[in-house]
Amino acid sequence: MSRKTKTTATKEVATPALMPKLRFPEFRDAVGWETTPLGELGAIVTGKTPSTKEDDLWGGEMLFITPTDITEGEKYQHTTQRTVVETRGTKVLPPGSVVYTCIASIGKMALTVVPSVTNQQINAVVPNGKTAREFIYYSLANLTPWIKSIPATSTLPIINKTQFSGFIIPHPEDKAEQQKIAECLSSVDELMAAQARKVDALKTHKKGLMQQLFPREGETLPRLRFPEFQNAGEWEMKTMGSIASFSSGGTPSKDNPEYWNGTIPWVSASSMYDLVIQKADHYVTPLAIGNGTRIAKKGSILILVRGSMLFKRVPICVAGIDVTFNQDVKALDVDPSINTGFLLYQLSAFQARFPINETGIGAGKIELEHLKEFELFIPDAPEQQRIADCLSSLDALITAETQKHEALKTHKKGLMQQLFPSPEEVAV
User: Fold this and answer.
1) What CATH class has 34-171?
2) How far is the C-alpha of 100 from the C-alpha of 218, rounded, in Å?
3) Is residue 2 predicted with pLDDT exceeding 60?
4) DSSP letter string, 83-129
5) Distance in angstroms (rounded) separating the CA atoms of residues 51 and 87
């Protein structure tokens, strides 16, 4: 299939053949790429949820795929939360089908590895053999940023079956070149998956180590102590209120532009994902200090004390620079006799012990009196330092390996931009 020609007032002008910026050596002299609607590369199937009133349809061996089952970055769909025995009113997808979320969370995708069905939020491509199935998968992955940019015509973003079927897929005529591209990107995916497993293993190791390095609930000594402290004394129980002072944050008036878009980070729940806070989603000016918010000095510990996030985890961070913070956060100014890093890690290890009250509006809350009464266990200063150094070195390793994973993501994105023509070129 050749590309269409453009008609001018005087003559027809042939549209230049599609060429990716990067082609493998053996295909550099091959003809330009063709374009085909997605619906001509395979059958398009929209899923359907089996009746929840018919218990005999559920709990079988066939995967029932919903958007929440599809994990970003995982190419193959091996498991789901629910399974079915049979389906009524929808088609079973064979292995090698491409599933793609087309309602709300647009663009989550995977390849099936066993016969599966999906719910109505997913459209699937069952390849007809004209194009390599993994090439279709990567073509859709390359097209996804453009698909997400399509203006929504309703409150809920929707790509209907007709739209999905009509997406134009550029592809080389030679199936061997399609396969070569898919194999190249698959190898990068395998590297990324291996790196992700390495990061997850390090995080699991850290979690287990923290459970050993700090006393379990109901105990006063850890199960694991470094050799040089095996014969050291007992850890001393202290309340948080006895070793730290607390301060509350706030929000400067949003109506006063002189308070906002400055250089001082303003920390809220959305900024509390890293152990050390150096940046935030919003910034304030020096004029905001004392006019709705206050400074938490570098080295202060920040704890989220109100918000729906508390039902999942209690964000606890240390200020890597001077920051400001909102009313949902408490700042702890720690006594100099306590190693801040040691306290930070112990609080992180004990976060499940914080009593969370419900506010009645869907948010959780940690009362200040409960924070002040919260029990901690403190060894001598050298042992505090040893534990903090051990865990911080492990954090540094996790960060380094996470950065490698992010670098692979960036590499893959750049590679896809080179291996496929851009959607803008296809639209010419």
Assistant:
1) alpha beta
2) 49
3) no
4) EES--SSSPPBPTTPEEEE-BSSTT-EEEESS-EEE-TTEEEEEE-S
5) 9
Amino acid occupying residue 129: G
Mean pLDDT of 199-225: 95
Rounded to whole angstroms, the Cα distance separating 24 from 385 reads 54
Closest CA to 308 of 367, 362, 250: 362
pLDDT in tens, 398-424: 999 999 999 999 999 999 999 999 887
For the CA atoms of 296, 298, 303, 308, what is the dihedral angle to 10 degrees?
80
Q: Return the closest-CA partner of residue 419 out of 234, 142, 56, 187.
A: 142
User: From CA 110, how far away is CA 97, in angstroms rounded?
Assistant: 8
Residue 139 confidence (pLDDT) above 60? yes
Q: How far apart are CA 105 and CA 148, in angstroms?
A: 9
Q: Average pLDDT, whole number, for the chain?
A: 91
Percent of the chain with pLDDT strictly greater than 90: 82
Q: What is the CATH number of domain 172-229+383-428?
A: 1.10.287.1120
Q: Which 3 state secondary structure label does DSSP give 35? A: strand
Please report the pLDDT score of residue 427 as a whole number.
63
Inter-axis angle of helices 381-419 and 133-148, nearest 10: 100
Q: Taking 90 as the threshold, does the pLDDT of residue 7 lie above it?
A: no
Class of domain 236-378: alpha beta
Same fold, 34-171 and 236-378: yes
* pLDDT, position 360: 75
First to last CA, the chain: 16
What pLDDT, on the 0 to 100 scale, is given for residue 355?
93
Residue 268: what pLDDT? Answer: 95
Average pLDDT over residues 367-382: 96
Domain boundaries, the chain: 34-171, 172-229+383-428, 236-378
Long-range pairs for 223-230 at CB < 8 Å and ≥24 separation?
225/383, 226/383, 226/386, 226/387, 226/390, 228/386, 229/379, 229/382, 229/383, 229/386
Length of the chain: 428
Full-model pTM: 0.84
Residues 6+ apart with CB under 8 A from 14: 3, 5
Cα separations (Å) of 422 from 46, 131, 140, 144, 176?
27, 19, 12, 11, 21
